[in-house]
Amino acid sequence: MDISLKYAPVTVDDVDAAIAFYTDGLGLEVRNDVASGGFRWVTLGAPGGGGTELVLSEPGGGRSPEDASALHALLAKGALPFQVFEVADLDATFERLRAGGAEVLAEPADQPWGPRDCAFRDPAGNTVRINQAG
Fold first, then answer.
1. What gap in Å lies between CA 56 and CA 78, rounded to an integer?
2. How far is residue 10 from each of residues 41, 101, 133, measured CA to CA in Å?
3. Longest C-alpha distance within the chain, in Å?
4. Which of 23, 99, 114, 124 is the most buried (most CB within 10 A)?
């Protein structure tokens, strides 16, 4: 069977701030920016196309008011699932994100479970871990 993950949702409370974090800080590019029903969703992917795309959306996008409220509460607590990225140069990526004002959760370090990684919060409070490739 041939299968791959195409989209990974990331809930944010400010789509424009999230776009800046993921494009300027991580080097992703905007693939789609779509307005629908008073909300908007944006897909981001690695330069050159292909691979999994992040789908940025607000808590209320396409959800009931009750679900949007519950999701917003989880977002505010930083309790949503985190994203893990892999980069060729962890130190350069770390410095670029830190210089851009991202909240540092963990500086680059060798982890006992294997990778050398670091961690940040995106502007919405989502945890983003970044692994050194190779």
1. 16
2. 10, 20, 23
3. 46
4. 124
Q: Where are the alpha helices (DSSP H) in the chain?
A: 15-20, 65-77, 90-99
Comparing CA positions, the residue from 5, 9, 28, 32 lying closest to residue 80 is 9
By three-state DSSP, how is residue 45 classified? Answer: strand
Residue in 108, 102, 97 with CA at minimum distance from that of residue 131: 108
The model's pTM is: 0.91
Condensed to tens digits (0 to 9), the pLDDT of residues 19-53 reads 999 999 999 999 999 998 888 999 999 998 889 99
User: What is the residue type of 37?
Assistant: G
| Contact indicator for 24, 100 with CB cutoff of 8 Å | yes
Question: What DSSP state is assigned to residue 126?
Answer: -
Extract the residue ranges of the chain whose pLDDT is less than 50.
Answer: none
